[in-house]
Amino acid sequence: MAKNLTIKNFHDGLINKEFTALEIAEGYYARIREKDGVINAYLSTREETALREAEQVDISIAKNEKVPMLAGIPFAVKDNMLVKNEITTAASKILEHYTSSYDATVIAKLKEQKTVLLGKTNLDEFAMGSSTENSAFKITTNPHDPTRVPGGSSGGSAAAVASDMAIAALGSDTGGSVRQPSAFCGMVGLKPTYGAVSRSGLIAMTSSLDQIGPITKTVEDAAIVFDVIRGKDPLDATSADPENSDTYREQLLNPDFSRIRKLRIGLPKEYFIDGLDPTVHSNIEKAISKMKSLGLSVQEVSLPHTKYAVPCYYIIVPAESSSNLARFDGIRYSRIRKQEIEGKQLQELYLMQRGEGFGAEPKRRIILGTFVLSSGYYDAYYDKAQRVRTLIKQDFEKAFESVDVLLTPLTPTLPFKIGEKVNDPLAMYLEDIFTLSLNLAGLPGLSLPVDKEFSTLPVGFQLIGKPFHEPDILGLGRLYEESR
Amino acid sequence: MQGMSDIISTKDLEHLAELARIKLDPTEEAKLLKDLSAILGYFDSLKELEVTNVTPLTGGTTLINVFRDDTERESTNRGAGEELFPEKENGYLKVPPVFK
To answer: What is the tens place of the pLDDT at every residue in A199-212?
Structure first.
């Protein structure tokens, strides 16, 4: 049975009839049964439906019909995106029994491609966290070391792809939740420009920051998935595709490396901090040397407000989260028994359902958000954070006057031990130090491994692009990957 | 602006929890007070920035006036999530009274 397939070689093998979509899907479910008892990447699987989806692809192939690029691809989806008639929990008890009433736009696009959706993956509850330990249901482990976290919040998706329990997956990224688990698991992760991908059907955490992005084995695969899911959607008013043209698509899927080699790389000096783990640091230096040897110019740039990004982010996120999570009142979307309602006032019911339904991190963020938005503190916190956000965005705009792409570390540390940071929220928040500024500024970011093979634990680095310039970072990432 | 880190008392926390409609047990309250104090203390660094003349970035996009066509479309979410509720009639849920 073919193992460790990429989208590209699955597609080629499928149309050349080297295997059937059904065989491959069955192989993936066999692997899930064999491995997921330790890794715990999936919250739910849908084998019967998925195998029928695979059979449909095989029927098209047998009839020699042209099939889309993602047809038959065994795909995993983070469990905060709605797949019609499937349970969507966001890894929260408050949604434990909620059946999705419609398809998220990204899911509708995957279904149009005849993708085989294997199942829904684990996450930090409501995507709040950097280790996937905040799930109400299970703790996902890092496929490279089961005593360590896979990163988060899309840890289930990254672990599923890294352990070949899916060829590719979708995650969501509010402050690093696609990129950081990709780095911790040795995979490729793309956080698209704010607005590039519709969030309709993504359970909202922080609406001004959330984006959906692919987690894949190669940069080429990330570009293929991104090309499928991107685009303007009337159901998400923030979505846009200002660069939509054949040239753009060509650059995305078949980068012209002579153009890519002319990109100017900037290294933001504020990202090379004292607290950076020495192994991470030496790996980033290695990536920079590699870029230079590929003929790219590298220069230092400055993003002076970098040190304010974490506090700015952790004011804006709880504020928006507290509003978004207000819709979960414990009455709709949650199971409740008749005897639990009787004799209670409505407010008592809310307090009980939300008190029992939310885990520690959502409670912390809802209460912190309620505080920073409350009368008397709004100006000092929320309004201030929004102004600081402008400064952070302007830093990037200024840097992009002299360079085209930024190269930075992705995480300050190697994948940490399970249990090491879960009770110290501030330590966990600092994990996002290199990733969250992009979300504040709305920029695209790519996470990719420094090395293809690594002796102990993977290390990733980050490429940051100008808004809607995904072809730059994906093209550069591909050049790096193919000459690695 | 006063010192941020010691800003939330137990009483304040209970008020916030009530506003947020979340029932907390005493263990959760103690942990939250400790966490919030550390987190708010960390926010103190923002005080050194002068931002009076900076325009706030109020969202993730600079798009304005995005409208959908005024046409009929299939409603995707009407009545969603209500199937788990025990008592309902004609699309209404029978919840407890607001006042006793």
So the answer is: 999 999 999 999 99
Q: A345, B43: Cβ pair inside 8 Å?
A: no
Query: CB distance A367–B80 less than 8 Å?
Result: no
- A345 and B66 within 8 Å at the Cβ level: the answer is no
Residues, chain B: 100
Which of the pair, A392 or A340, is modelled with greater confidence? Answer: A392
- Residues forming beta bridges with residue A121, ordered by sequence position: A42, A78
pLDDT of A111 reads 98
Please report the DSSP string for A21-56 in residue order. HHHHHHHHHHHHHHHHHHH--EEEE-HHHHHHHHHH
Contact A464, A470 (CB under 8 A): no
Residues of chain B with pLDDT below 50 are: 1-5
Q: What is d(CA A280, CA A77) in angstroms, rounded to the nearest whole number?
A: 29
d(CA A332, CA A348): 16
Give the ipTM: 0.91
Residue among A165, A156, A214 at smallest CA distance from A188: A214
Contact A144, A410 (CB under 8 A): no
Q: Are A435 and A462 in contact (CB under 8 A)?
A: yes
Of A308, A315, A306, whose CA–CA distance to A380 is shortest?
A315
Distance of alpha carbon A363 from alpha carbon A370, whole angstroms:
10
Q: In the CATH scheme, what is the code of domain B1-51?
A: 1.10.20.60
- Per the prediction, chain A carries an average pLDDT of 96
- Tell which of B14, B46, B73, B99 to mutate to test the A interface (max A CBs under 10 Å): B46
Q: Cβ of B71: how many Cβ atoms within 10 Å? A: 6
List, for residues A268-302, the tens digit of each pLDDT value: 999 998 889 999 999 999 999 999 999 999 999 99
Cβ atoms of residues B62 and B29 within 8 Å? no
Q: What is the phi/psi pair of residue A351, to 5°?
A: -60, -45
Q: Assess whether A417 carries a catalytic annotation.
A: no
Calculate mean pLDDT across residues A172-181: 98
Residues of B in contact with A234 (CB under 8 A): 68-69
For residue A179, the surrounding DSSP H or E stretch is: helix A179-185
Contacts of residue A169, defined as CB under 8 A and 6 or more positions apart, other chains included, come to A75, A76, A77, A78, A121, A154, A157, A158, A160, A161, A214, A215, A216
B-chain residues near A342 (CB < 8 A):
96
Contact B11, A344 (CB under 8 A): no
pLDDT in tens, A34-79: 999 999 999 999 999 999 999 999 999 999 999 999 999 999 999 9
Spatial distance between the Cα atoms of A159 and A365, rounded to a whole number of angstroms:
26
Q: Which residue bears the tokens 């159901």?
A: A235
Note the helical H segments in chain B: 10-19, 26-43
Q: Set out the domains of chain A in order of their start, with CATH numbers.
A: 7-255 (3.90.1300.10)
pTM for this predicted structure: 0.96
Q: What is the mean pLDDT of the segment spanning A423-447?
A: 95
Cα–Cα distance, A397 to A152 (Å, whole number): 28
Q: Please check whether residue A69 is in contact with residue A113, taking contact to mean a CB–CB distance below 8 angstroms.
A: yes
User: Tokens 């995993």 — which residue?
Assistant: A76
Cβ atoms within 10 Å of A162's Cβ, excluding its own: 25
How is chain B split into domains, by residue range?
Answer: 1-51
